[in-house]
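Exercise 7b. Backbone tokens:
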């Protein structure tokens, strides 16, 4: 399992000498490659599994925000800041190893009748489409509205569509489930929130130690084996 060894070596270097900068984001491995987004400005470390070799690919001058990476459509996606454009979606295609920019909706910080002054922005996949989920209208760092933007045609800015729903005292957002629920932190509880029915389901006890320091990811079963694995 060469890519695991490669990751272990890289992780050891970073733990011993400190990370490349102040930022380290999710990695994704395919049958032939493993990619990791690092640094400020954003760069990609790519490992070719067959040769266990690493190379670094630079993006244009961009600064990451605090949102986790999302793997979708063969690429890693993360929200980043460009001086020229402000916040955008920065994508890294694992196949052709190129960075690309996807513009956010022009008015994604606008509510129905108000301008949002602070928010939480996170990327998700909703029914096979790239999505931007924005929690806004902060009062004492607590959100009261959720704007769900879905890009109906990948890469086409004009295809962004928005749905807005009220939420109750959201402090953090952890992910979007395959059955359409939002995982949010509400009054120090992990809550599953249905944006269609507005129903909430408490999933964790209050004051859990991990609250505020966790990211989630969807997974699926696979019959593909790693090198050296065996079936019993």
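Sequence design result:
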């Amino acid at each position: 399992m060469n890519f695991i060894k490669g990751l272990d070596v890289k992780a050891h270097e970073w733990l011993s000498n400190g990370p490349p900068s102040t930022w380290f984001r999710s990695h994704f491995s395919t049958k032939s490659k493993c990619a990791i987004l690092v640094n400020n400005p954003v760069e990609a470390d790519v490992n070719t599994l067959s040769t266990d070799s690493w190379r670094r690919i630079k993006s244009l001058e961009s600064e990451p925000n605090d949102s986790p990476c999302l793997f979708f459509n063969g690429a890693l996606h993360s929200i980043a800041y460009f001086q020229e454009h402000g916040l955008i979606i920065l994508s890294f295609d694992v196949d052709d190893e190129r960075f690309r920019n996807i513009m956010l909706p022009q008015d994604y910080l606008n509510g129905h009748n108000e301008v949002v002054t602070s928010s939480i922005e996170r990327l998700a996949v909703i029914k096979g489409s790239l999505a931007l989920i924005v929690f806004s209208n902060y009062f004492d760092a607590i959100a009261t509205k959720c704007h769900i933007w879905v890009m109906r045609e990948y890469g086409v800015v004009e295809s962004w569509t928005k749905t807005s729903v009220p939420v109750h005292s959201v402090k953090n957002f952890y992910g979007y489930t395959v059955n359409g629920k939002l995982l949010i932190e509400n009054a120090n509880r992990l809550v599953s929130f249905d944006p269609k029915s507005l129903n909430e389901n408490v999933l964790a006890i209050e004051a859990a130690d991990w609250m505020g320091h966790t990211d989630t990811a969807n997974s699926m079963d696979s019959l593909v084996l790693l090198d050296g694995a065996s079936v019993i």
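Instructor comment: Confidence is low (pLDDT under 50) at residues 1-24, 218-226, 228-232. The chain has two domains: 1-103, 104-217.
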